[in-house]
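Open question from group meeting: does this chain pack into something compact, or does most of it stay loose? Before anyone orders reagents, we agreed to write out a predicted structure and look at it together. Recording both the input and the output here so the notebook holds the full record.
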Amino acid sequence: MKRPADRGFTLVELLITVAIVAVLAMGAMPFMQLVNQRAKEQELRTALRQIRVAIDAYKKAGDEGRILRKADASGYPPSLEVLVEGVDNIKTEGPKRWVFLRRVPRDPFFADRSVEAARTWGRRSYDSPWDSPREGKDVFDVYSLTEGVGLDGTPYREW
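Structure tokens returned:
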């Protein structure tokens, strides 16, 4: 028959177990941060692709004469919101209103959630140089406003 003192764990055994679990958890933290950053980077790539495809579709529709374009305009959308609101189709075939995006995706690295999604992106106009983008009368391209650097070493602003 066992005595009551022979059953259960000692305090030292419990402390060693807790210490081992803590060391394992501390080792998993950097891995989880890496996984989170990779997920945000993939979301950033997807959002940039969606917006850029919509900008190109708007430009193509203007070049084909499907939407109204002023003679002095570049043919690119005047804002990101126009891609969601849509523009009138001036040709008879197809839909009466062309919508290029269901919604403007949010930059996943933009911290302030109170800012509307279209304002989380930097916008480059057609007449702005590639190495120092600035806003103008149209939206030729978008870029992340985040100062961070991706896992591949490229700043997010250059994606």
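Observations to bring back to the group:
The two ends are 72 Å apart (CA to CA).
The chain is about 35% helix and 10% strand.
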